[in-house]
Amino acid sequence: MSEPLDPRLTPARPHVADLRLRDRVTAARYVAGTPRRVTAPSAPLRREPDPGAGLDTEALLGDAVDLYDAAEGFAFVQLARDGYVGYLPADSLGPADPEPTHRVTALRTFLYPEPDLKRPVLGHLSLGARLVATGESGAYLETRGGYVFARHCASVESREPDYVATAMRLAGTPYLWGGRTSLGLDCSGLVQLCLDMAGLPCPRDADMQERALGQALPLDLARLRRGDLVFWRGHVGLMRDPETLIHANGHHMAVAAEPLAEAVARIEAHSFGAVTGIRRL
């Protein structure tokens, strides 16, 4: 018997579904996904085609998607990065080609209409955004959408293997449910962004991460080390060192580092209960 399909990862709605799901779901029509790429600095992915619907996650400039349907300003897509399904603003998408050449390595940087820091900016790009460089102009990369300060970027193949150091760079970033940019992050978005910068595939939500990442360890908080992931039911954090957790959380409403013992006691008493898992990458 087939396992139930996770709606977060299943490109199917009553009006349309992925052609490959014809034998598993009921829909008015079945289509093959059309490759597209995010051309906006970032784009909110929502569960429903409604600007008032909650934010599930965010796509960044350069992210690849499969497009299944577009109507009334929304595009029903599946993100290539992690398989997440939902609705993006239709105007945030463009052609799939060419492939990005660079990605942003600064926490955030600006997109300019000309290679001139005095010009009004077109928008901001987050850590991890990927862009197509078409040339250079002084200290700037020329891209398909504008100009970016070159030293804020690196080759798309570059890696930042110390994902804990990346998390510490993001300390102070405001908490945002569904956020995965350097303007706002939730707990699993922080983990996913940091692992992505290290070149490590990572699911989007905490429960998915607890099942998929690394090796499960015994629930012994006295034997943790830097880089271990600590999970609760609906929450995740990274160990900065054996005694210190860094996590995006609603208590601080920010990415914050704090003694693990304090976080464990507070979370058990007031929110997600006891620790459910430890994973080592």
UniProtKB/TrEMBL annotation:
Source species of the chain: Methylobacterium oryzae CBMB20
Pfam families recorded: NLPC_P60, SH3_16
Keyword list, A-Z: Hydrolase, Protease, Thiol protease
Protein name: NLP/P60 protein
Keyword Hydrolase appears in the UniProt entry: yes
Homology family: Belongs to the peptidase C40 family.
Spans annotated as Disordered: 32-52
Gene3D superfamilies registered for this protein in UniProt: endopeptidase domain like (from Nostoc punctiforme), SH3 Domains
Keyword field contains Acetylation: no
GO terms classed as biological process: proteolysis
